[in-house]
Amino acid sequence: MKINNIGYLLKEGFRGIFLHGFMSFAAVCVTVACLLIVGSFSILAYNLDIMVENLNKTSEILVYVDSSLSDAEARSIGTKINTLSNILNAKFVSREEALEDFIADHDGDSAFSGVQAEDLRHRYVVTLEDNTLMKQTDAQLKQIPGVVKTSAAYELAEGFTTIQSVLHIVTVAVMAVLLVVSLLIISNTVKLAMYDRKEEIGIMKMVGATNGFIRLPFVVEGFTLGMMGALLAFGLEWVMYDALIEKISTVDSLQLFSFVAFQELLMPMVAVFGAAGLFVGIVGSWTSIRKFLDV
Amino acid sequence: MIEFVDVVKSYTQGNKALNGVSMQIEDGEFCFLVGPSGSGKSTIIKLITGELKPTSGNVHVNGYSLERIRKREIPYLRRTVGVVFQDYRLISKMTVYENVAFAMRVVGAREREIKDRVPYVLELVGLSNKAGRHPGEMSGGEQQRLAIARALVNNPSMIIADEPTGNLDPQRSFEIMALLQEINNLGTTMLVVTHDQNLVKHFRKRVISINEGVVVNDGLEAFYGYEDK
């Protein structure tokens, strides 16, 4: 393809958008709708992922120290705990602190007024780097001399891990389905545009235009429609997300939900929307023209 | 040059459109191809333009072997063969000038070449004064002249005219044939497919008669043995 033809081909591509105004409008609207759903679902999944991750970080193992050990000996166990590979933090809680927590937890219930600090053990509150390895780490903790007992909520940690995995699978599946839907609709739009210009394409073939020359204006058209859809969807997503966060923050007085600011997601969102727009635009038009070129 | 050597073309349904056609048309020749409907004329045109491949035998067109041609070479073959149809196949929303320029543009011609060549070709076919009109505003004869201009503009070595006078009255038909002869005199090979016996008799050129996929006559006087069934 000669350089001097590129201007002509681009011009033809843009001309096609206005020539088939309604179909172009429909294609952009459909792309916007699909990308908005994909984008919203991805952001929701991302936020849920972070929330689950944060909740998961609160999962901990309680490590009880042999009550016959002195305070100094009990504190020295912390060094051994920290040598294990999966330990994020090991906080020492003395039996006196444990009693205070116990009383606070039971709201000063007189039934427990006889409980003394000596009745309790020194303990460590251990948080892990990777909660999926909780069982293995728990077993290692039990091996440490001076540790008499541990208490770990495996089910809870595994529950969080399962929720995260399911969330990832559902996100990928929904995104894939929506991308295919966008692709089919854009492809159909270009197909209709091409049907409208079937005679023109026939003449181009008859006088010896190459397939690449015939195809490029349609690909330019598809690319432009895809990018227009992506740009609009991105802007709308931003506005809607900010509005939603603001609305939730006014009703979420307990601060149960924490959302990532859109600005933090800016680059990944630009990349995802741009790539999706590019993909549906180019692949949609490229595949739909094939049939018309076979003359 | 066109050369058919023992060409057989069968369609998937099993019927044979051509059954051992051999013929040769030299560069610069003017030749009529005649035969009844379904005799194989369209198949011959499609083989020449690379729309079809022969089932067996050899087809050579302007240096390309059609039985071996690659898909990506077909556009380049077509640039050597201008085609004119009975129904003109013009783009109604383009002007006369744009219709002709379009044919140059889509094969990658420069704007300067287009500006030089299009007026020359329009003058050759007698449409210089109608460059700004649209096909719908012109008579059938003028539209066919425009189709010839478009076929000619990329300077092909050969023009194939498929029933070019099929939609025209006798007077316009003679004018179109005279124009094709004039173009032939400038050196372009001409293959005209027609049913019009008067035209064939009047212009007294080589006539290839085909019937049921076989060449039944070939020569200057051969046409007189052919009857349209």
Describe, in plain words, how this protein is organized in 3D.
By secondary structure, chain A is an alpha+beta fold. Chain A has helices at 3-19, 21-57, 71-83, 95-105, 134-143, 154-196, 198-207, 211-251, 266-293, and strands at 60-65, 87-93, 123-128, 147-152. Chain A folds into 2 domains: 3-55 and 159-293, no CATH class; 60-152, 2-Layer Sandwich (Alpha-Beta Plaits). Chain A is 71% helix and 8% strand. Chain A has a 4-stranded antiparallel β-sheet. Chain B has 2 domains: 1-80 and 157-229, P-loop containing nucleotide triphosphate hydrolases (Rossmann fold, 3-Layer(aba) Sandwich), CATH 3.40.50.300; 89-155, no CATH class. Chain B contains 7 helices and 10 strands. In chain B, strand 1 and strand 2 (16-25) form a beta hairpin. The chains are: A alpha+beta (295), B alpha/beta (229). At the A-B interface, helix 1, helix 7 and helix 8 of A face helix 2 and helix 3 of B.
Principal-axes geometry of chain B comes out as: globular
- What is the residue-averaged pLDDT of chain B? 91
- CA-CA gap between termini of chain A: 21 Å
Content of β-strand of chain A:
5-15%
Strand count, sense and barrel status of the largest sheet of chain A are:
4 strands, antiparallel
Structural class of chain B: alpha/beta
Mean pLDDT reading of chain A: 82
- Within CATH, the superfamily of the largest domain in chain B carries the name P-loop containing nucleotide triphosphate hydrolases
Q: DSSP helix count of chain B? A: 7
SSE topology string of chain A: HHEHEHEHEHHHH
**Contiguous uncertain segments of 5+ residues of chain A:** none
Query: Greatest chain-chain interface?
Result: A-B, 20 and 22 residues
Helix percentage of chain B: 25-40%
Helix percentage of chain A: over 70%
The largest beta-sheet of chain A arranges its strands as 2-3-1-4
**Nearest-angstrom radius of gyration of chain A?**
31 Å
- Strand and helix order of chain B: EEEHEEHEHHHEHEHEE
> What is the makeup of the main sheet of chain B?
6 strands, mixed
The gyration radius over C-alpha positions of chain B equals 17 Å
